[in-house]
Amino acid sequence: MNVMEPNLRPVQPSNYATIADWLDSAQATQRWAGPGVPFPLPPERFAQVLELAVRPGWVLLDEQDVCVGFGQYWMTDTGTAHLGRIIVSPLARGRGLGRLLMQSLSAQALREDGIQRLTLRVYRDNTAAEALYRDLGFQQVETSSTPELLFMQRTPG
């Protein structure tokens, strides 16, 4: 299989309904986006609910410019960008796009001035995502983790 070239672009309003359609339940929506995010997520409320003004969203596009992944990052501490709301289209899973999305999103975040550390949270039962993040150099920080959520960080270099 040839790996597609990363094509990470800022999320556009035309992507909102597509991404919202990937969420099939209130539980899936809450796990992905956090408490207080409605299911179904109305496209007209997408930008507001996900705070895109302060937490820019990025989409991964395939060779046909179809949106196949989404993620955000935002500054949490000096020098730290937190990656969150990472999702790959259910129809595109198992093709390595999660890795491509994470690599592209991480690279984008590290281009921001002064960013020296990346952090993320992952549900402990999401073993596939956890393994991917470890493979990409993220290490767990047990003191910042909870019984349900693993806090991970990566210091590039």
Structure description:
This protein has 157 residues and is of the alpha+beta class. The protein has five helices and seven strands, in the order βαααβββαβαββ. Strands 1-2-3-4-5-7-6 form a seven-stranded mixed sheet, sandwiched between helices. The longest helix has 14 residues, at 97-110. The mean pLDDT is 94.
Q: Beta fraction of the residues? A: 25-35%
Rg over CA atoms: 15 Å
Major sheet strand order:
1-2-3-4-5-7-6
Q: What is the total tally of β strands? A: 7
The percent of residues in helical segments reads: 25-40%
Coarse shape:
globular
Order of helices and strands: EHHHEEEHEHEE
Distance N to C terminus: 30 Å
Uncertain spans:
none
Average pLDDT taken over every residue? 94
Write the layout of secondary structure elements.
Blueprint (H helix, E strand, L loop, with lengths): L7 E3 L2 H9 L4 H8 L12 H4 L7 E5 L5 E11 L2 E9 L8 H14 L6 E7 L3 H9 L3 E2 L8 E6 L3
Parallel strand pairs: 4-5
Antiparallel strand pairs: 1-2, 2-3, 3-4, 5-7, 6-7
